[in-house]
């Protein structure tokens, strides 16, 4: 397993680099920070801001999905990039277990579960910080990947 830390990739926790983030305006808007990258693994964080809430004052499901989906993409694609291929989602399932609370830090941890040929299976767990307590799981995301030629 090839693992990259912030220092090895020439960044800080706020600027850990991955080629797919260079032009990803959604990840930038989310405030996504890459904490760890390895072959088939990514850990990211973001803070849940007011503009990410739905009409009930809790995290909009689309924000949680986008956060998990970006972390999934980071785990699927090599942190050094590839000249010939990209790995994209072929399908996902997401289960929302708890409400995301404004101001809390969310952490997404993506891990490859299986890889066969050009297809892969990844699990992403999304947790939120709890003041004075242990982080709690707010969503589980399962992604199916497919590696395809670059266009």
UniProtKB/TrEMBL annotation:
The protein depicted here goes by the name Hydroxyphenylacetyl-CoA thioesterase PaaI
State whether keyword Nucleus applies: no
Its source organism is Zhihengliuella alba
Q: Which UniProt keywords apply?
A: Hydrolase
Chain ranges of the Thioesterase domain: 56-128
